[in-house]
Amino acid sequence: DENARGRTWEKYDKAGGMLPTNSITDIAVDENHHVWMIIEDSKRKELARLRFSQGTAGSGKGCFELIPEDRLPWNSGTDLTTLRAEGENLFLGTHSDGFYILTNTLTAADSSQFIWQHYGSSEKLPNLDIIGFERVFLPGKEAPLALLHPNALTFWDGTNFSISPLSVDGKFSCMSADGAGDLWVGSNKGLFRVTKEGDIFLYNRMNANFHSNNITAVVGCQKTTGRETAVWVACNENPDGADHEPFILSFNNIEQKVARKKKLGPTEARFYEYVLSTGKKFKQYRNDEYGVVENCTAVPASLHYFDGLLWDKYETAVNCLAVDGDYLWTGSN
Questions:
Q1: CB-based contacts of 224-227 (< 8 A; 24+ apart in sequence)
Q2: pLDDT of 188-219, one tens digit each?
């Protein structure tokens, strides 16, 4: 169906015969615009891809391919966790088996020609549980690959692994690098910042005004405001539960509406303060420059922007983030 801007959504699912399951746990797109995914079917996670002929990506003409087990280097039943497409390479993380690199995603005619590399205990990988990859670009230096573990962080320069002093008495959840070469790592204890000099800072409810220390998403931006540091971060105390109060968006039981203004970063945003018949109060913000809308949430949750100096705060529940040029995409439940 086309939306108001004339764009078309193509749906790939089990009902349409394109996928064997609707459970997709991670996704990455290579330079050929082929879509790699980890799918979960019958409690097993498998590697698959949607292949498109040149010029047909997004046209509904993709060909689904479940990579056969006999063409994969890991044992059947290996728990696949995360993907990252980068140039010719596809990085694939696992629980307890390190990570794999498919080194010829762009040139292999089919899966029988795949060339895989494995990095595990034999290669002296210090932690075999991989939950995320991120490339950290440092000025004048080779860009290392950051490997995120549930409670630790490792850097890899393509030859050697080095253990970061960063650790957490809890669990890491996500990470992203910004244009300054800093690495931002989310956890259930707050947001950690690992600078290019190796310094570590922690941001949480106390010093960044987060509604929760449980970080659900973080995304670093390239230079956009005259400063290299630019990062969005979301926190949510209960990311698996309902984010908003019942009826809050339908406005069926509003007794009072008051127009107000609030300073949000460099601009002034209009917002309305509502009082419901139940006595519950909530606010809805509209920032005309950024188009940010906030609604009161049923659980402690908030979205924040940091420019290296100040934290902006938006009262909305977000579980995932993506930056696309001047646009910030957010997702919630």
A1: 224/326, 225/307, 227/307, 227/308, 227/309
A2: 999 999 998 889 999 999 999 999 999 999 99
> In 3D, which of 317, 291, 301, 328 has the Cα closest to residue 209?
301
Q: Which residue has the tokens 């080194």?
A: 103
Q: How many Å from the N-terminal Cα to the C-terminal Cα in the chain?
A: 23
> How many alpha carbons fall within 13 Å on the CB side of residue 88?
8
Question: What pTM does this model have?
Answer: 0.78
Place of tokens 């046209």: 59
Please enumerate in sequence order all residues whose Cβ is within 8 A of that of 27, keeping only pairs 6 or more positions apart, or say none: 35, 36, 37, 38, 83
User: Which amino acid is it at 98?
Assistant: G
Secondary structure of the chain as H, E, C letters? CECCCCCECCCCCCCCCCCCCCCEEEEEECCCCCEEEEEEECCEEEEEEEECCCCCCCCCCCEEEECCHHHCCCCCCCCEEEEEEECCEEEEEECCCCEEEECCCCCCCCHHHCCEEEECHHHCCCCCCCCEEEECCCCCCCCCEEEECCCEEEEECCCCEEEEEEECCCCEEEEEECCCCCEEEEECCEEEEECCCCCEEEECCCCCCCCCCCEEEEEECCCCCCCCCCEEEEEECCCCCCCCCCCCCCCCCEEEEEEEEEEECCEEEEEEEEEECCCCEEEEEECCCCCCEEECCCCCEEEEEECCCCEEEECCCCCEEEEECCEEEEECC
| Cβ–Cβ under 8 Å, residues 96 and 129 | yes
Separation CA 242–CA 161 (nearest Å): 41
Q: 207-211 contacts: CB < 8 A, separation 24 or more?
A: 208/304, 208/306, 208/311, 209/302, 209/304, 209/311, 209/313, 210/235, 210/302, 210/304, 211/235, 211/237, 211/297, 211/300, 211/301, 211/302, 211/315
Q: Tell me: the pLDDT tens digits for 78-99? A: 999 999 999 999 999 999 999 9
